[in-house]
Amino acid sequence: MDLHSGLAYWIIKNELFNYFHPLENDYKIDVAIIGSGITGSLIAHELCKAGIPCAVFDKRTIGTGSTAASTAQLQYEIDIPLCEMSKIVGEDFASRAYHASLESIADVGKVLKEAKVNADYKSLSSVWLASYKKDVKLLEDEFEIRQKHGLPVEYLNEKDVLKKHNIKAPAALKNKEAAQMDCYAAATGLLKYHLKKKELELYSHTEIVDWKEVKNGYELETRRGHIIKCKYVIIATGFEAGQFLPKKVMNLLSTYALVSQPVHEDELWPERSLIWETKEPYFYMRTTIDNRIMIGGEDEEFQNPDKRDKLLRNKIKKLERQFKKVYPDIPFIVDMAWCGTFSSTADGLPYIGTWPGKDRMYFALGYGGNGITFSMIAAQIIANELSGKKDERAEVFAFDR
Asked: Could you tell me if 178 and 75 are in contact, meaning their C-beta atoms sit under 8 angstroms apart?
């Protein structure tokens, strides 16, 4: 399935990592990572750092799956608010998930710095707007529970939002612990870093079509009939991981994104904050390093790529109107637009770890709008477990939580 279509900004901005290296023989490695996007690259980085021999396999050109379509906002807020998530998974698990997400934002920055990868990582504030007056109560409840659990948060009333961010909204929650980045540059940069150091094998255009559990590991079969023998396999393929799972654990959604022509820097909003709304599906916006405006949302239930793609023109108009409601005086002319498919879970949390009873197949499934931060958490948990270290976060994101 095509994970996205249209003109994704990151593939235009960056030079394509034009890497063609399919597997042409049987192969043996300690850990096989399936997926070369931001999740697979972060996992590879953590494993290489831990001295664990690993190789990455992808059926596509490197990094051109969901990663190329990501709007790459790093926020500790999860799709389901803390006050609502607490009712689903319990307050302890919910607060631990939020704290793990908060810590992972800085961790992503550290990884990029230590690997000397320029992915336009930038720390910013995040502003969550009440779309309607009825949503003020939600923000008040969320503010209270975030404060209770020591999470960074500031409550802005209607006057505060207008004064500090030049937005007309009934209320907002703000924090200064967010970031944005270039997801494609990060993924490809990390892989190139470890390739150069000869710490990693990377195979493109190598599709895994069958697998079987054997004593002390797995045997994976490629479409060309080659066998990969490994002690562990890590599935980092987003919603396409469904083929490896015993049952369905996620829902598929179609999402849409636009990027504007560049504008003058002084025309952009205060602090260049990440801005998003309470309404569902929520609308969100950010800027880019070259002073473009990136907006997205209009999510809806996924049916098939053709229906998703046919809606793109209509979604462009809707997203443009939504931006104009927030900042009517900022010029916005669409330069590129794309749509993609992503997954969500009932409780808003990713699935990280092994399926019960299958101790050598790990999953790093960062479902939802926090894919990058969840991927960072998954990379750390899996690297710790393969190194024989206990990671207390594992139980929060486990399949049997």
From this structure: yes
